[in-house]
Amino acid sequence: MTTPSGPWPLTVVVPTRNEAENVEPLLARMPAVDKVVFVDDSDDDTAEVIALAAADAPGKVELLHRPLGHRQGGLSGAVVAGLDQVESPWMCVMDGDLQHPPEVIDKIMQVATDDVDLIVASRKNWDSINEGLGPLRSFVSWVFGRVAVVLLRSRIGTCSDPLSGFFAVRTRALDPTALNPTGFKILLEILVTHPHLRRAEVGFAFARRGAGESNGSVREAARYLRHVVRLRRRLRTEARRSA
User: Fold this and answer.
1) How far apart are alpha carbons 172 and 152 in whole angstroms?
2) Whether the Cβ atoms of residue 197 and residue 169 lie closer than 8 Å to each other
3) What is the pLDDT of residues 45-71, one digit of tens each?
4) Residue 238: what pLDDT?
5) What's the confidence (pLDDT) of residue 213?
6) What's the rounded Cα separation, in Å, for the pair 142 and 109?
7) Of 100, 123, 89, 112, nearest to 200 (Cα)?
8) Integer distance in angstroms from the first to the last C-alpha of the chain?
């Protein structure tokens, strides 16, 4: 896809949680797109900051705030909730902490051709991951990636970064009813439940986090491991049914 004269035919879905200070910088760096949808699970004033920033933003910005008690599925659930707001041919998912540089969206959409359904922005090298996460969290990320590759290799295939939170997908190619989102690795769920998607990748440098604190925790790690096991069981069940 060549650079359009107008905005990219794309809705950017940004899950946020207590990241008020990152909102304006993110919007200031956002390329021209159809719209940006913030799905906010915050307990601070992030929702109010988004609403104020939307009034001054050059493009269309929408806010979906999920109050306490309605935040099913964590970050992955927020992405699926945001999917209901997408009318564009493409949807891009990215974090709101500025570790996913908005400028990479231009690079992603340059490869959004007719024969591609899913474009993964990949932290292809260790230096990129280490810069954004630090040595300890980089190691944890590597372990999580290896667990996924070992248990879900048949669906991950050649994807170099199945745990990336930065990707674009052709909207009509995604079946929301096939997703059972939980935790913070929605791309892994999509890879397993949508094996027919034609894939491409672009590399990017994983940046240092902006304001706020990481949502990573021992609880999220345990949820991730349970999620991988559940996806593995799903594959085994599908294999038995097709045998």
Assistant:
1) 25
2) yes
3) 999 999 999 988 888 999 999 888 778
4) 79
5) 55
6) 27
7) 112
8) 40
- Judge whether 19 and 44 are in contact, CB under 8 Å: no
Q: What is the pLDDT of residue 127?
A: 44
Burial 112-130 (b: 16+ CB within 10 A, else e): beeebbbbbbbbbeeebbb
pTM of the complete model? 0.85
The length of the chain is 243
Distance from C-alpha of 80 to C-alpha of 152, rounded to nearest angstrom:
22
Given a cut of 70, the residues of the chain with pLDDT beneath it are 2-3, 5, 125-142, 181, 183-184, 209-218, 243
Helix (H, G, I), strand (E, B) or coil at 225: helix
Task: Give phi and psi for 36, each to the nearest 5.
Answer: -115, 130
Cα 160 off chain centre by: 15
Structure tokens at 92: 């891009």
142: alpha, beta or left? (left if phi > 0; alpha if psi -120 to 50): alpha
Give residue 224's identity as a one-letter amino acid code. Answer: Y
